[in-house]
Amino acid sequence: MLDSRYKHVFLLPALLALVAIIIFPLIYTVRLSFSGWDVNFPELDYIGWENYARAIADGRFWDSMGTLYLMVLLCVVFEYLLGFALALLLWHDVKAGRFFRVLFIVPMCVTPVVMAVVWRTIFHETLGPLNDVLSWFGIPAVPWLSKSGPAFAAVVIIDVWQWTSFMFILLLAGLMSLPREPYEAAQIDGAGPIRTFVHVTFPLMAPITLGALIIRLIESSKLMETIYALTSGGPGSSTETTSYLLYIRGLREFQIGYTASLSIIYLVIMIIALTIFARMMSRLMIGRQGPVRA
Amino acid sequence: MAEVSISGVFKRFGPVAALSEIDLTVHDNEFVVLVGPSGSGKSTLLRIVAGLERQSEGSVAIDGRDMAGIAPKDRDVAMVFQSHALYPHMNVFDNLAFNQRIRGVDRKTVDRKVREVAERLEITELLRRRPRQMSGGQRQRVAIGRALVRDPRIFLFDEPLSNLDAELRVRLRTVIKRLHKEMRRTSVYVTHDQVEAMTLADRVVVLRDGRIEQIGAPDALYEKPANEFVAGFIGSPAMNFLRGEAADGVLRVAGAELAAGPASGASGPVTVGIRPEDLLAGGAEGRGGIRARITLVEPMGADTLIFCATDEGQELTVRLPRHTAVRERETLTLAPRAGAVHLFDPETGIRLN
After folding, report:
1. What percent of chain A stands above pLDDT 90?
2. Which residue of A has its CA nearest to B133?
3. What pTM was estimated for this model as a whole?
4. Contacts 24+ apart (CB under 8 A), B302-305
5. What is the DSSP pairing of strand B154-158 with strand B186-191?
């Protein structure tokens, strides 16, 4: 029997890395948020809650959070619906499933900035192919990137294009792992396709659905590169998400102390929001007693 | 009233034949158990009766009506699955009521039926629970209840007890048997457990590699197995098989000479089958006795299992009454009970006596 202390020795490198890249920056950010560090005063002084008071009064910050939430909500809902629909379509077609699984990975592999640049070309008001295609159907040219509504939609479209496949792959894998017997029970009970979906497929998929939604929520809350390359948060601040605002405040304007306080507020709100969401969803979809065992 | 007639059924999965030449009639109110090792095709046959799978050849008829092209839901069968297959997000009540609601039965009737069945299966206090809040045994009770509520013409069971622990298995087995006695419905039950087959069945169908090896009442199967496979499969611990020689009504086996029994006209090499409980200790040595050295003693409470080896190294299992004073490494002289010797053709495995 090995001395149980050895395990701590083996865990130490990982622990050190964790401290170096997460714990230390986190604590340092908290400390920074109480300082007035900026371009003019690059010093770790102490100014109390001043930054936080300023943040709470900062309308642009709260607007960016509103933008973010709306964007994330739309993206994740569309990705889920489309991904689930595609997965259901290809569920019983093993060959096609394999082909599309590979094909659909491609968007996820593309660097977000590169992709945003390509999409910027597609969305170009006069030279882009998208408006050209729309004009065939008699739809007048849409100012994709220069009007707030279309710009917002453009960001959502790109995210949906890139991440639907993620939902698709996850949900397809889930569908293929479902037990056969509940379906046969439903068949013998005389449930049609809609009842079977509502009473068998959907509930059995609940744990996977929940996992997929939460992963995508966390992931898409960090939405930044696409916006950086596509709209730079514009026009105005209509596509400015919180992480993009943090980037502007911190790395362009170099208001380090203030940005630190913004990120701490953002972090706390995200943790609370995601926790509440995860609890609500799991209660709604799975019930209180933990996941369904087939 | 339901009779299932299966005639000439074949089922092929690509080049593999899962079932060949299955002819079987399950009579009205009869409890038939399909038993066999895994891969014997017993579940496939059940699924064909349910309509979940289509046979490659042959026909299945219920009450004389050919079932070709008739969907599972229109066959008036209910099935209990190995993994209970309850609807996970519905509570027990809704699970039991689901089928009746689909069929548009009115609320009051559904309510009454569900409560009746719940009472019968002693799951009334579970009606508000969901499947995951129950133990395996409770879930399987609910699954049986779901079949009962429908009051179908035919009950199909696909290894319903296989996922349960030993004690629960025995308890639910009696529940199923009692239900059958009360309700008298045609039932087809699949299991790989020969004890379940013996205890539940009116008739047992032994399957191997997609073929029927023997059909018969449990006792008949036990006492007169048609071949070596059935002889070895039915009964626990399994029957002993020894190499022997038959000539002139005398059976030479493991250095002993036994009377081969009057009906046996066999001569030449034979496989001799003797059940563990049919070997009696303390016979005279030489003529009529098999000498065997005890290698292991397993006291079972009611009786004692003794594993031993003959001088030629053939393994034997003997079931002796408890309190038999034997010790490992002792030598026993064993003689088979009169008329309890089974003879099989060593090549084809077919019964000779």
Report:
1. 34
2. A289
3. 0.79
4. B303/B277, B305/B237, B305/B276
5. parallel
CB-based contact B85 A185, cutoff 8 Å = yes
B311 or A66, greater pLDDT: A66
Domains of chain A, by residue range, sit at 33-285
The answer, for B317 touching chain A at a CB cutoff of 8 Å, is no
Report the complex ipTM.
Answer: 0.80
In order of start, what are the domains of chain B with their CATH numbers? 4-232 (3.40.50.300), 237-344 (2.40.50.140)
- B52 to each of A184, B2, B80, B99, B304, how far by Cα in Å? 7, 19, 13, 17, 45
For residue B102, which residues of chain A lie inside 8 Å, CB to CB?
189-191, 195
**Edge-to-edge strand order for the sheet containing B331-336?**
B279-281, B331-336, B290-299, B303-310, B315-321
* Least confident among A87-91, A96-100, B305-309: A96-100
- pLDDT tens-digit map of A219-255: 888 888 888 888 888 788 888 999 899 999 989 989 9
Task: Look up the CATH number of domain A33-285.
Answer: 1.10.3720.10
Give pLDDT tens digits for B208-224. 999 999 999 999 999 99
Contacts of B85 in chain A (CB under 8 A): 179, 181-182, 184-185
Per DSSP, the three-state class of B177 is helix
Helix (H) or strand (E) holding B196: helix B194-200
Residues of B in contact with A287 (CB under 8 A): 89, 130, 132
Q: How far apart are CA A141 and CA B221, in angstroms?
A: 83
Map tokens 């943090």 to a residue. A246
pLDDT of A126-176, one tens digit each?
A: 888 888 898 899 888 888 888 888 899 999 999 999 899 899 989 999 998
Closest Cβ opposite residue B73 in set A188, A199, A291:
A188
